[in-house]
Amino acid sequence: MKLKIFFYLFLSQVFITAQNNNKISTINKIEHLNLLRTNVFVDSFLNIRDGHTLKKFSSNGYLVSIELNQEWRDSNLVNIYRTINTYDFKNNLIEKLGQFWSNSNWVNVSKSSYTYDSNNNQIGFLGQNWNGSNWINSWKSLYTYDNNNNKTTLISQTWEDSNWINYFFHSYTYDNNNNEILELSQQWVGSNWKNFHKTTNTYDSNNNMTLTLLQGWDGVTWINSNKESYTYDKNNNEIEYLYQKWNGSNWVNYRKSSYKYDSINNLTELITQRLDGLKLTNHLKFIYSYDSNNNQIGFLNLSWDGSNWINYIKTSSTFDNNNNELEYLVQSWENSTWINSSMASSTFNSNNNKTEIIYKNWNGISWINSVRYSYTYIPENNIFDEEIAIPNGFVLLQNFPNPFNPGTIIAYKLLKISIVTLKVFDLLGREVATLVNEEKPAGSYDVKFDGKNLPSGIYFYRISSGSFIQTKKMILLK
């Protein structure tokens, strides 16, 4: 039961936090449906693990710089794990550092590094693990794109005996509407790429995917494996999903899902069926409810007992006036009544960014704190033109990287020749460094700041040039 409840909390966060102001988008809706299609929810949860797919950690014009995971142990809040994100001047995530808390110190565990082309397409991924003194290569991915920024190839490599060894190769083909119509996967065997499987997609005139065919290579020819079919209503809402497997001579129905929507295209009902012997029978039913702002406030899950739908789990959510989800409650149906199971409570700052989420478990009498996540943000950089020779104003850019250890770059731009002062202050307002104090011609400048002799903490850097004064915050983490 605990694992089941945890998955519901997890599923909610996948579904809710990915939304813009918590309103359900079509893409997030379909991702949610894809999770629910699996036979076993927990299998779905355990297999959501693509460490090489980049996600943008952005919300309301701010980027998540630090995510901290803590647990309550014997009523004490204990550090467990944290991730530190670093971004470039175009707000692309370039490094994700993972650390565990051990013996009152943060200890490196893993590091992911990302590179991009001039169109901000991710062209490289490097995964490394910490061995106690050095970063050791683990996994690498390389990407290419066409002129429409569609991914055309992906090469995955593993680090073995101080060398990068090919592992998988994927190539992608698109139609004139940039829909992916073919994915070919090959595996490195010996010294050559060998066919592994291929996926063929078909679309309707509205660019809705209607068919996905997966085939495997037997060494001579392509053999059918499974097939997924999709049906849509006039509003392009998916109303039916059918999963079939190839038994050697025929397609056999294996899973089916049916969806209903309200007049404004909110998903209101989902029924899943699965193979039972020779036919599809009811399996699970989900009913969704919304408030006047289209926030999902209710979720009821029922299971089929052979003749009737039986209550299983329900959730309820409360939102503030800015459509931020403040509380998410999970209850289970036991002995003909709803029993509290788990709850997630969230806190938001003035920018409507989630700063804290606390997971709690019900012990039969009261709520017991279990896990806490907290988030630190930095503003997005809204100035991307690094090529301009004469800026159209006085501009102080966010330092990069941030957080940093121990060095970082502070960039600024000047419209005209000016006397420029650039200083760094600690949290108490004490000056700790003067980086620039001289006359500068118009143009763009980069200044390096080295914090090796300073303690970890929050620092501010301020530029003054004539009547222009601007201050920004940076974080030194050692």
Characterization of this structure:
This protein has about 475 residues and is mainly beta. It has 2 domains: about 1-380, no CATH class; about 395-475, Immunoglobulin-like. The chain is about 5% helix and about 60% strand. The chain is built from 3 helices and 30 strands. It has a 22-stranded antiparallel barrel. The protein has a 4-stranded antiparallel beta sheet with strand order 27-26-29-30, with no helix packed on it. Mean pLDDT is about 85; it is low at about 1-55 and about 385-390.
Task: Summarize it.
7% of the residues lie in helices and 61% in strands. It has 478 residues and is mainly β.
| Number of DSSP strand runs | 30
- Strand-residue proportion: over 45%
Low-confidence stretches: 1-56, 383-392
The figure for the number of domains is: 2
Taken from the alpha-carbon principal axes, the silhouette is globular
Major beta sheet summary: 22 strands, antiparallel, barrel
Number of helices: 3
Structural class label: mainly beta
Give the overall average pLDDT.
Answer: 85
Helix content, binned percent: under 10%
Helix and strand layout, with pairings?
Layout: H1 2-17, H2 26-36, H3 41-46, E1 58-59, E2 62-73, E3 76-87, E4 93-102, E5 105-116, E6 122-130, E7 135-145, E8 151-160, E9 163-174, E10 180-189, E11 192-203, E12 209-217, E13 222-232, E14 238-246, E15 251-261, E16 267-276, E17 279-290, E18 296-304, E19 309-319, E20 325-334, E21 337-348, E22 354-362, E23 367-379, E24 395-396, E25 407-414, E26 418-425, E27 431-440, E28 443-450, E29 457-465, E30 468-476
Antiparallel strand pairs: 1-2, 2-3, 2-23, 3-4, 4-5, 5-6, 6-7, 7-8, 8-9, 9-10, 10-11, 11-12, 12-13, 13-14, 14-15, 15-16, 16-17, 17-18, 18-19, 19-20, 20-21, 21-22, 22-23, 24-25, 25-28, 26-27, 26-29, 29-30
